[in-house]
Amino acid sequence: MSLHRHNPAELAPPTGFSHAVTATGSHLVFLAGQTSLDRDGKVTGETLPEQFETALGNLLSALRHAGGSPADLARVTVYATDVADYRRHAPELGRIWRRLAGRDYPAMAVIGVVRLWDEQALVELDGFAVVD
C-alpha cells in the first residue's frame, strides 16, 4: 500500500490535513460515521475535544479491525454541529489527532451540520483507507 500526500506550493499551507492524497493498495476500507458512543451506545464527553477524542478512537478502532492503521487513511470527513467551536478548539483537536493518528494527515474536510443522529453528539468522523 502506498499513500502519497500532495500539498502544492501554490496553495495555502495545509494545517492538519493534506490537499490531496493518491493511493495504491489491495483494498479500500470505507469507515462509517463514528461519534463518541461507548460500548453501550451512550454518547460520552461533554465538550467537543472530549467527544472528538472518543469519535476518532472509534474510527481508528474500526480501521484496525479491518486490518488498517492510521497511516492508511486517505480521506476523513468531520461533521461538527458548531464549526466556530471546532475552530476555537482546532489546536487541541490537532494534538489529539497527532497523539492517536500520527502526523500523516489524510485529505480532510469539516462540514457544519444542524445536528447528528444522537442529539448529544457534537462531532462525527467518517472516511476511507487504502490497505494492503
What would you call the shape? globular
- State the helix count: 3
Ends apart, CA distance between termini: 5 Å
The computed structural class is alpha+beta
Largest sheet data: 4 strands, mixed
Q: Roughly what percent helix?
A: 25-40%
- Rg, rounded, reads 14 Å
How many β strands by DSSP? 6
**pLDDT averaged residue by residue:** 92
Low-confidence stretches: none
Strand neighbour order, sheet with most strands: 3-6-4-5
Please trace the helix and strand order, writing H or E for each element.
EEEHEHHEE
Note the beta-strand portion.
25-35%
How would you portray this structure in words?
This protein is α+β, with helices and mostly antiparallel strands. The protein has helices at 48-65, 83-88, 90-101; strands at 2-6, 20-24, 27-34, 73-80, 107-112, 123-131. It has a four-stranded mixed beta sheet with strand order 3-6-4-5. A two-stranded antiparallel sheet has the order 1-2. Helix 1 (48-65) packs parallel to helix 3 (90-101). The protein is globular. It starts with a strand and ends with a strand. 32% of the residues are buried.
Task: Provide key terms for this protein.
single chain, 132 residues, alpha+beta, four-stranded mixed beta sheet, two-stranded antiparallel sheet, 6 strands, 27% helix, globular
